[in-house]
Amino acid sequence: MPLQLYYDNLSPPSRVVRILVKEIGLDVEEKQVNLMAGDHMKPEFLAINPFHCVPTLVDDGYALWESRSIITYLVDKFAHGHSLYPTDLHKRATVNRWLYWDSGTFYPSLSAYYTPGFAGKPVKPEAAEVFKKNASALDESLKSTKYVAGDELSVADISITVTISVASAMGIDTSELKNVEKWLKQVESDFDPSTWQTLVIDSANGLGTYFKSKAFSS
Predict the structure, then answer these.
(1) Which of 3, 159, 153 is nearest to 78 (CA)?
(2) Confidence class of residue 217 from pLDDT cuts 50, 70 and 90?
(3) Please, where are the H alpha helices in the chain?
(4) Are residue 199 and residue 180 in the same domain, yes or no?
């Protein structure tokens, strides 16, 4: 049975997994779950994932959700030893540290900005400033490394790239962070051009457009 990936086009965590799938060349059966239409609350999806979130991976009956758990699982099972998720203990711990930072600090600070907007409520500029402060910490770290976790592209770069791309699409300007900008150019050159365009730029812009239509509608 092929791997099945339940995703939504506008979901940033879904994009993280879809990019990783492209990077390691996996054959995955993609199944669109339209969150706006409530597909994630349908009984057939709840039977797979009672937490009703995307992305959700199904591997021969085993269901796994949370994007960062999925990407590390996929590399370990299908591309073990790949530099995207190294087996060296210290290198892996550094990658994990950045993944946890993204999930526990960086992305939540972005979510604090955009979540009210999706509900049609005023966004809070101070929330954007918190995100930019976190981005500045990333910029400082990137003074001494080529990628976020060292000298090789890792799953942490994929995850954090998606976070930054969403922020940019929603109007949070981080272009003054020169080390972040240099790093993004490096990641872009590492990705297949079609992957970068469709899963980083186009998808982020789609979410940004939807956000602006909700947050700034008259």
Answers:
(1) 3
(2) low
(3) 12-24, 43-46, 67-78, 89-101, 107-118, 125-141, 155-169, 178-190, 193-195, 203-215
(4) yes
For the question of whether the overall pTM of this predicted structure is more than 0.85, the answer is yes
Q: What's the rounded Cα separation, in Å, for the pair 162 and 202?
A: 11
What end-to-end distance do the CA atoms of the chain give, in Å? 49
User: In whole angstroms, what separates CA 104 from the centre of its chain?
Assistant: 13
Mean predicted confidence (pLDDT) in 165-194 = 97
Catalytic residue among 11, 109, 159, 203: 11
Q: Burial code of 109-135, b = ≥16 C-beta within 10 A, e = fewer?
A: bbebbbeebeeeeebeeebbebbbebb
* Residue where a domain terminates, one of 27, 53, 78: 78
Read off the pLDDT of residues 47-62 as tens digits, 9 standing for 90 and up.
999 999 999 999 999 9
Determine whether 83 is an active site residue: no
